[in-house]
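Recall that a protein's primary structure is simply its ordered list of amino acids. Everything else, from secondary elements to tertiary packing, is in principle encoded there. The following example makes that idea concrete.
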Amino acid sequence: MALRFSTSLVCRFTHWSSSRGPDMADAIAGIDHLLIDSSDLEADRTVWERLGFTMTPRGRHPQWGTGNYCTMFNQGYLELIGVVDAAEFAANASRRGSRKQGPGLSAIAFATADAYAARDTLVEAGIAADSTKDLSRLLEGDEGTTEPRFDILHLPPDATPATPMFLCRHRTPDLVRRPGWMDHANGVTAILSVTVPVSDPLAMVSHHERLVGPSAVAVTDEIVTLHLGHETVMLARHDDLLALYPELVPETDDGACPAVVTLSVADLEATTAYLRGASVPVVRDARAVMVAAEDACGIAMVFEQAP
């Protein structure tokens, strides 16, 4: 059975302060969404639907050459993203910023109340943040095509060595959280954390202290934890991740990023029953039901009972 760690375990052994200062806390308020790379959007959408997620209609980023499907929660969401126009994708590299391509986690989007003010805060902290950009997505719904809009602030790779990261402010939140879109057969209500495999977590501490504030960064042994609002981002060596989740992550990463995403569910027993009823291979312990990365489009999923 897989051994697991959680935010409570990290806090038990490491002192940290939840006070990050008003400027940094406003700049990065938590996890807005996680991007998971897809080489076949339609096939991967079917995989997530089998896992019990309600998927939004297909979207398209006309400025990026990418398309997506999202699964929305009360707090945060997951996005399957893939290239749908190779020429447009190649021509707009500077606009879309960097993200990992290959199985697993592609990027982390942080929530911000004001992407323009956040840029000023980050520049003052010594981070060469890009200019804030206006992004839209064409969403192909049953009632026609809508165009949700976002403010996006890409962060430079030297500020986010663990994985590509950027800030996102929703300008039209009502268009991406529609009635029924947050009702999931698996009972998921929110993102709790994401654990990212990295080569050397300790070497990244100073970078992330500058990004989110020193008081938001905790170190336990060789696991680095970023405390961001209600969510956490954890950085761990792949070997440590494999030791903690032997049945969930692949033995070698092969250039992929088999992150572990922990999700809050309304009723753990009901979630377990749904997944087993859908013939999804699961690992169950007293606190969670888990799905391996190979069965969830490259990211392992840990479903935990909501507090």
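Confidence is low (pLDDT under 50) at residues 6-22. The first helix runs from residue 7 to 13.
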